[in-house]
Amino acid sequence: MSGQSEGKALDIRTVTGSSEDGGVAHGARLVAFTDAVMADDADTMVATRAALREALDDAAFVDACAIIGAFNVVDRIADAIGIPLDDTLTAMSGEVRAELDLGAFGSAANTPGAANA
Predict the structure, then answer these.
(1) Can you tell me the distance from the alpha carbon of 84 to that of 53, in angstroms, rounded to the nearest whole number?
(2) How far is the C-alpha of 95 from the C-alpha of 101, rounded, in Å?
(3) Cβ 8 vs Cβ 23: under 8 Å
(4) What is the DSSP annotation of the chain?
(5) What does the pLDDT profile of the chain (117 residues) look like in tens digits?
């Protein structure tokens, strides 16, 4: 369930290292493991995976790993083909993109309209 539907205050800046856990249970461990996977850092990945594994039950751990893996694939495909933002998505995502400063990421160059929108 999303935090919004549960009435929880979430801090999306967690994904850029601006918040400890973002209001998500085990958020800091989830971000650390995600960062290690995306950086292809085997030693850190082993340590962060073990820490996350201790914190989550079997189903939650599998879900977290599946989401990280799926995002990795989708993100690489999007970067490879350069998916442009349409007018609706540009309008809907503008505030979030500005708050997270997503245009500063190198991959923004692969999304026409993202760096400037």
Answers:
(1) 37
(2) 10
(3) yes
(4) --TTTTT----GGGGGTSSSSTTSTTHHHHHHHHHHHHHT-HHHHHHHHHHHHHHS-HHHHHHHHHHHHHHHHHHHHHHHHTPPPPHHHHHHHHHHHHHHTGGGSGGGGGSTTTTT-
(5) 466 677 777 777 777 766 677 777 888 899 899 889 888 889 999 999 999 999 999 999 999 999 999 988 887 887 788 777 788 888 888 888 888 888 887 777 777 666 555
